[in-house]
Amino acid sequence: MGRPACHDVERLRDAYADNELLAENALCIAEHLLLCEPCRGLVDETIRLKMLVRRAVLGASDHTMGEQR
Ligand SMILES: [Zn+2]
Does pLDDT of 51 surpass 90? Predict the structure, then answer.
């Protein structure tokens, strides 16, 4: 992958947030994020959402533990 464009970042941001990209691709994205504020916001938001979801899922499974549903 050469220099990624904004639409590349948008396409890969899920995998990037999950650390599922090849190191070289992750590096390209990271470099783009340094220069591109909109993409940085997008990726930050994606990471934040994933953390919230993960926490909600963990919390929910804790909460429903022992409850009949
Ligand atoms: Zn961008």
Answer: yes
The alpha carbon of 55 and the centre of ligand 1 are apart by a number of angstroms equal to 28
The arithmetic mean of pLDDT across residues 18-37, rounded, is 96
- Domain borders along the chain are 6-68
Answer whether 42's CB lies under 8 Å from 62's CB: no
CA of 31 to the centre of ligand 1 (A): 10
State both tokens at 5: 């464009």
Determine the distance separating the centroid of ligand 1 and the alpha carbon of 25, expressed in angstroms.
14
Contact between residue 15 and residue 47 where contact means Cβ atoms under 8 Å apart: no
Query: pLDDT value at position 61?
Result: 72
Structure tokens at 41: 């916001």
